[in-house]
Amino acid sequence: MAKNKAVRGAAVVNQRSIPWVLVAGVTVVAVFASVIFGYAYSRWSDQAATRDAQAAAEKATEAFKPSPQNPDPSKGIQGVVTADYKAQQHVTPTQRVAYDKNPPFGGPHDGVWADCTGVVYPQPVRTENMVHSLEHGAVWIAYNPDKVDEASLDRLKVRAQGKPYTMLSPYPGLDKAVSLQSWGHQLKVDNADDPRIDQFITALRLNNNGVYPEIGGSCQAYPGAFDTNNPPKFDASPPGPDAVTMDGKGSNTTAGQMGQ
User: Fold this and answer.
1) Closest by alpha carbon to 127, among 156, 97, 158?
2) So what's the pLDDT on residue 124?
3) What pLDDT shows up at residue 57?
4) Taking a C-beta distance cutoff of 8 angstroms, is the pair 2, 10 a contact?
5) Facing residues of 82 across strands?
6) Where is the composition biased (Polar residues) (predicted)?
7) Mean pLDDT across the stretch 89-103?
8) Any alpha helices (H) in the chain, and if so which ranges?
């Protein structure tokens, strides 16, 4: 009888000695790690699929590559709007331009161009700097952050990130989900899967057939003049009465552009 009590007592002691708090903690960590790993793998898988889809989309735009026979293939893209703008009208860093389009795709602009070496800007960038990059042959992909979800943003990023003469940035208040700009050309679409996005980029990025004014212009940020990691901020307020007009009145034409 005494022996049985001793055995039961030992069992109770052993049961009480199990570190349930530690077990619970390890379980929580394991579950959390599983969730994180699952999410990371899902994101990696989605991004890989996005890259594959983009490669196929770019391959499908062969017919929109510029050639002597077809110097501006964007004319065959439905929805492209064009306008003629005078080049090399520069404003100072504190001046605003009363642009005639939203987003603008030509006209007076800052003497410093925005870095367009395949940069994905997480925040809106000052318009006057972005327009200057278009003068150098870049394509600017703008999107409305309220109309583009995470998957759609991934589709846009893969078109810009690391691609020369391309830049991507949010543009608050944009009337469409996505708007593409090159000098004198614009295309607005409702979603990031629209094949015309890739057609536009193929047709107009670095199209040297007189489509943009400054052939050979750099897209690399000018040292000490434009900070890619902290660029001039976008101003959503209406330009004031002292803003430079589209005919260049009020622009600082004597300043020229950086590097000249």
Assistant:
1) 97
2) 98
3) 76
4) no
5) 185
6) 250-260
7) 97
8) 2-16, 20-59, 127-135, 150-160, 196-204
User: Distance between CA atoms of 100 and 229, rounded to whole angstroms?
Assistant: 29
Mapped onto helix, strand or coil, the DSSP state of residue 207 is coil
Tokens 């830049």 belong to: 167
Amino acid identity of residue 211, one-letter, is V
Torsion of CA 253, 254, 258, 260, to 10 degrees: 120
Residue 46 confidence (pLDDT) above 70:
no
Q: What are phi and psi of 207, to 5 degrees?
A: -80, 105
203 and 72 Cβ atoms separated by less than 8 Å: yes
Q: What sign does the CA torsion over 207, 208, 214, 215 have?
A: positive
Residue 67: alpha-carbon gap to chain centroid:
28
User: Which has the closest alpha carbon to 130: 149, 153, 163, 102?
Assistant: 102
Nearest to 96 by CA among 131, 56, 146, 68: 131
Report the chain's terminal Cα–Cα distance, integer Å: 103
Please report, for the chain, the start and end positions of each structural domain, with discontinuous segments joined by +.
79-259
In DSSP terms, which residues pair with 168 in a beta bridge? 120, 141
Say whether the peptide bond before residue 103 is cis (omega within 30 degrees of 0): yes
Task: Return the amino acid letter for 111.
Answer: G
Residue 110 is classified by DSSP as: E
Contacts of 190 (CB under 8 A, 6+ apart): 176, 177, 178
Which pLDDT belongs to residue 16? Answer: 60
